[in-house]
Amino acid sequence: MEQVLKTTQLSKYFYQKKALDKVDLSIEKGKIYGILGPNGGGKSTFLKIAAGLLKPSQGEIAIDNKEPGVYTKSIVSYLPETNYLYKWMKIKDALNFFKDLYTDFDVKRARKSLKFMELEEEEKVTSLSKGMMGRLKLTLALSRKAKLYLLDEPLNGIDPISREKIITSILDSYSEKASILICSHLIYYIEKLLDYVFFLSEGRIILSGNAEDLRNKRGMSIDKLFQEVF
Amino acid sequence: MEFNNSIPIYLQIIDSIKQDIVVGKLKSGQKMPSVRELAGILKVNPNTIQRVYQELDREKITYTKRGMGTYVTEEEKTISSLKEEISKKIILDFVEGMNKLGFSKKEMINTLKEYL
User: Fold this and answer.
1) Does any CB of chain B come closer than 8 Å to the CB of residue A29?
2) How many CB pairs under 8 A join A and B?
3) Contacts of residue A167 in chain B, CB cutoff 8 Å?
């Protein structure tokens, strides 16, 4: 199987604090992965390193066999948890912003997705509810033809209707040619999407495995297993 | 479809498809939805559906024509043995449950009769 991302003993320190501690993981093409763990466990730090926004303190990370940099940014689509759109923007400006920034941004796909998400291009981003903002950010991230999608807490603070739409779009955008890595602590809602899970706590991977195998072996849902482990 | 997340999801989907074939909701020779379609309908990982179809193909309950899709078997024998398999499972579950409640064989039969 072709590897899209691989880390070896990846560590990140913030002064004395270990955010990531010797993490070894690899991600194959065409699969959906979940990094699950409590807040502060290192999930976002991991994604930021993979997105090329933070440098590792020790260890290695390779995306498509390259160190994070200009090339990897061109094939990685990252959905951050924070808001990154300018206040003056309308939704259509956000679309243009992405089109200018990323050559792999598919405007057609984005327009189709906006329709599904029930978002109007003339709407100002400052007037959006939290759920609508979540839907817009996901539309932007998934409309790139990337090899690797990194989604940081796509369901956090999202209402049930938006949640359904977000899950549907993630599935729609699935392709055998790409991989998706989702960080979340809302396991119940996303576990049916996942091929493989990593439990991350205090910067370490304490459990990992194929989701169906784990259900089979432990006789419980990933959500239950998570509650048992933590 | 509601899933019980403590049981592998592909097994639950297989059971539900078998059920649909036995009761005729899915007809013999009928084309199944594509992997992507079914994943979208059930809101599960497409690789899970891939595994479902592989397993059903292996059990000869469906067959896949390359580039054409997956179809329900036309073998009457396979379908009738499927029916047997499912009914056996229901009966075994019943007997096991009643055993746990301390019913004797005779009591089981008599109780069952009341509901027939």
Assistant:
1) no
2) 55
3) 43
**Full set of structural domains in chain A with CATH:** 3-229 (3.40.50.300)
Give pTM, 2 decimals. 0.89
Q: What is the CA radius of gyration of chain B?
A: 17
Q: Which residues, other chains included, contact A111 with Cβ-Cβ below 8 Å and sequence gap of 6+?
A: A95, A121
| Predicted complex ipTM | 0.83
**Contact criterion met (CB below 8 Å) for A198 and A170:** no
CATH number where B26 lies? 1.10.10.10
The answer to whether B45 touches A32, Cβ cutoff 8 Å, is yes
Per-residue pLDDT of chain A (230 residues; tens, 9 = 90+): 789 999 999 999 998 889 999 999 999 999 999 999 988 889 999 999 999 999 999 999 999 999 999 999 999 999 999 888 999 999 999 999 999 999 999 999 999 999 999 999 999 999 999 999 999 999 999 999 999 999 999 998 889 999 999 999 999 989 989 999 999 988 999 999 999 999 999 999 999 999 999 999 999 999 999 988 88
